[in-house]
Amino acid sequence: MKMTGNFFLIGLPGAGKTTLGKLLAQKVGYTFVDADQYLSERTGVTIPTIFELEGEAGFRAREAAVIDELTQQNRIVLATGGGAVLNLHNRMHLRQRGQVVYLHAGPQVLHERTRSDRNRPLLQVEDPVQKLHELYAVRDPFYREIADYIIEVEGQSCVQAAHSLFSALNLP
Question: For the segment 115-137, what is each residue's pLDDT rounded down to a tens digit?
Fold first, then answer.
């Protein structure tokens, strides 16, 4: 049975999950949680440090535990890490425990939004645009598989994207 009280935002890095998640939580009076920030606070180190020490597999295991824990809470808006959907259990928890919103934008736009951010370990490569294309190819089908709503954020300001989100969720 699907709990409908929670909202889970998914999408690639730079799609606006944290920014729009905070606005949505404020709008509906829920608690906002950024999964990566929560994990970082819990471990006492940054996400890049977890990647450096434990590799992506170690990070994904920690992320799965956090997703399971957070999706069981009530009245939260959760911004997931972009790769959370790679794990089948994460997808099941997100689908069953709240309304899933996919914030969609293409790789080129996402690169423009993330190019100066050093806290995104998967994008610290020689060709981040190519990496975003690769991530998009793998993750987009998973995002679409579990999304209750797909919000097109490309070409929209933060305010416009928030309006699109609120409208899709039938919020005044």
Answer: 666 666 555 667 878 888 999 99
- Residue in 141, 151, 142 with CA at minimum distance from that of residue 171: 151
Main-chain dihedrals φ then ψ at residue 77, nearest 5 degrees: -110, 120
- pTM of the complete model: 0.91
The amino acid at residue 52 is: E
Q: How far is CA 90 from CA 50, 142, 161, in A?
A: 19, 11, 25
Upper half-sphere CA count for residue 57 (Cβ side, 13 Å): 0
pLDDT tens track for 2-23:
445 899 999 998 899 999 999 9
Provide DSSP, 45-109. S-HHHHHHHHHHHHHHHHHHHHHHHHHTSSSEEEE--TTGGGSHHHHHHHHHHSEEEEEE--HHH
7 membership: H or E segment, kind and range: strand 7-10
